[in-house]
Specification:
Keywords: Cell membrane, Membrane, Transmembrane, Transmembrane helix
Number of domains: 1
Structural class: mainly alpha
Transmembrane segments: 29-49
Distance between the termini: 32 Å
InterPro entries: DUF1328
Strand content: under 5%
Number of strands: 0
GO cellular component, one term: plasma membrane
Largest sheet: none
Length: 56
């Protein structure tokens, strides 16, 4: 998920440098959504963890 966010962020930067303002804004918005989803899933995984007893 974080890879997708970084990919859309890089696309937004490239589009911004080339002058595609609307397209860059769309890519940045998608990147923000992916970062938010990644952070939510990361926090959930930290809270719940694996939940199992470690094998010996």
């Amino acid at each position: 998920m974080l890879r997708w966010a970084l990919a859309f962020f890089i696309l937004a930067l490239v589009a911004g440098l080339l002058g595609f303002g609307g397209f860059a804004g769309d890519m940045a918005y998608i990147a923000k959504i992916f970062v938010f989803i990644f952070l939510v899933l990361f926090v959930i995984s930290l809270i719940f963890g694996r939940g199992g007893v470690p094998a010996v």
